[in-house]
Amino acid sequence: MASVSCLMRVVVMACGASIVLATELVSAQAVFDERNTSADQLRKALTPVAPATTRGEPITVRGFDPLTPDAAAPVQQGTTGHTGGASLLISFTSNSTNLTPAAKAALDQLGKALRSEQLAAYRFQVEGHADPRGPSDVNMRLSTERAQAVVQYLSSVGGVAPERLTAVGRGSTQPMNRHNPAAPENRRVTIITVQ
């Protein structure tokens, strides 16, 4: 199930799952838990939304539809729509880049979404995030390696062409939950559609 969360580029879930709240808001994205993620939900979240126009001029809208995660991201004044994005709460074994069975199942759904007709023309940036516990250089390395592990899995097992995927580590620079450093949403992988 997805929940909408006004955060940085983050996770995607379908309606009915728990809502992840953050006190510091960056941009609207859906958040997905690896246990409740479908390819269709991810496909919808990752599909870029074109701006509404009247006579060629963008219309600024701000709205929220709790039943459709891709409708939750506001189109900001002066933008041309928003890129697709989803954050997955992907689990790894402690202090490692080893994907858990639940993470692999979620990435199988992500691979299916990325191979869909709607997303076939796009490339994706895979961003790894770490919680702020530990030295920043270790967190940066670990987040980069985790993003690379996801890219490797998606290309080798998920059937996604490797040239469509770029791995980036963000370390602990973009926590979703600043009030609880150990919160699982601070250890995540974000998928951003590149147009």
Automatic annotation (TrEMBL):
GO terms for cellular component: cell outer membrane. Pfam families: OmpA (PF00691). Residues 79-195 form the OmpA-like domain. InterPro entries: Bact_OuterMem_StrucFunc, OMP_bac, OmpA-like, OmpA-like_sf. Residues 1-22 form the signal peptide. It is found in: Cell outer membrane. Keywords: Cell outer membrane, Membrane, Signal. Its main location: membrane. This is OmpA/MotB domain-containing protein. It comes from Caballeronia humi. The lineage of its organism: Bacteria, Pseudomonadati, Pseudomonadota, Betaproteobacteria, Burkholderiales.
